[in-house]
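Figure 2 data, in text form.
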Amino acid sequence: MEKYSHLLNPEMNEVVKEVREMRMKISEKCGHDLNRLLAYYQKVGEEMRKSGKYKFHDPEPPAEKPAPTKSTRGEAAD
């Protein structure tokens, strides 16, 4: 429980409450539609990137999968 003791802080509770209220308003604005909500957050993210005010970390591109190898014996695997 010690790990979460900061959540018992009244100031933190107010911050969490405010964040949840903002998320609910955004969801309402998007009609609680997941696709519209995703598009909204993507648009906001792009606007934030373009502003230059914030730093973003881009994830590493997925590693390419190696080409399948052919059986040298010409037999199918079980």
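Caption note: Residues 35 and 41 are 10 Å apart (CA to CA).
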